[in-house]
């Protein structure tokens, strides 16, 4: 029993110490919100990026983590591969950037392509790398630093939209609004409303009738709890997003 008490007390002490460290780090980050990618004045932009490797028939496409440094004056991008398991830094790769493109596609999330002239000793001419930032914010800063181009309608514009209506067509917006209104009216007391999934076939049927109705087909009446349970509505909303 004594051993158990000592273990519990040790766990409490470790938890308290972790909380104090967390609060200290949080205050430090809030007091100095400087972009870490701009700390070294020698470079226009620096930081970690994932670079897509060549396709392998057995393993598929792999990603390698690099510490990248870019100088806009010379248009030189230096990529230093880093292995976190060994902590060793191997030889770097460099290229003179000639173009940077960012595509607005869900499958291309946080990604952008960089084209340039290979500056290594075994230079292979023009090369194109597909890169991925750690966040949308990082991608935006890298693309701007590299002088890249964005599509006419992109993720950043969607994030800055003033309201949900601007991001949804009228049919989808009406569907989501009706679902949420119905859930607020009768589903807030249900346990695990958004955790417990609805029947897959019913959820699919609801989405098809609401978002892709067949000619002459009426919109689903979501006020009928016997036909459309609360968990079915909640799962449809999650499935849409």
A few lines on this structure:
The chain is of the alpha+beta class and 241 residues long. The chain contains six helices and six strands, in the order αββββββααααα.
Walkthrough of the structure:
The structure is a single chain. This protein is an alpha+beta fold and 241 residues long. Helix content is 35%, strand content 22%. The chain contains 6 helices and 6 strands. A 6-stranded antiparallel β-barrel has the order 1-2-3-4-5-6. Strand 1 and strand 2 form a beta hairpin. It is flat and about 70 Å long. The chain starts with a helix and ends with a helix. About 7% of the residues have low confidence.
> How helical, in percent, are the residues?
25-40%
Question: DSSP helix count?
Answer: 6
- Label the structural class: alpha+beta
Question: What percentage of amino acids are in beta strands?
Answer: 15-25%
As a whole number of angstroms, the C-alpha radius of gyration is 26 Å
Element pattern in H and E = HEEEEEEHHHHH
Overall pLDDT confidence:
79
Please list the strands of the largest sheet in the order they lie side by side: 1-2-3-4-5-6
Number of strands: 6
**Global geometry:** flat
Main pleated sheet: 6 strands, antiparallel, barrel
């Amino acid at each position: 029993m004594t051993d158990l008490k000592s273990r519990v007390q040790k766990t409490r002490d470790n938890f308290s110490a972790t909380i104090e460290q967390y609060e200290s780090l949080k205050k430090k980050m809030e007091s100095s919100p400087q972009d870490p990618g701009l700390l070294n004045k020698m470079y226009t932009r620096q930081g970690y990026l994932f670079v897509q490797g060549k396709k392998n028939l057995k393993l598929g496409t792999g990603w390698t983590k690099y510490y990248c440094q870019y100088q806009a004056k010379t248009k030189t991008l230096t990529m230093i591969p880093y292995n976190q398991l060994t902590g060793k830094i191997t030889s770097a790769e460099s290229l003179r950037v000639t173009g940077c493109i960012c595509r607005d596609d869900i499958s291309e999330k946080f990604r952008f392509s960089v084209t340039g002239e290979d500056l290594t000793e075994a230079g292979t001419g023009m090369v194109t790398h597909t890169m991925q930032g750690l966040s949308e914010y990082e991608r935006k800063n890298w693309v701007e630093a590299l002088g890249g181009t964005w599509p006419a309608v992109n993720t950043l514009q969607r994030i800055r939209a003033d309201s949900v209506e601007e991001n949804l067509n009228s049919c989808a917006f009406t569907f989501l609004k009706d679902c949420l209104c119905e859930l607020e009216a009768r589903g807030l007391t249900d346990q695990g409303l958004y955790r417990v999934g609805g029947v897959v076939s019913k959820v699919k049927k609801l989405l098809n009738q609401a978002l892709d109705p067949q000619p002459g087909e009426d919109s689903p009446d979501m006020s009928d709890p016997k036909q459309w349970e609360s968990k079915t509505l909640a799962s449809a909303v999650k499935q849409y997003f």
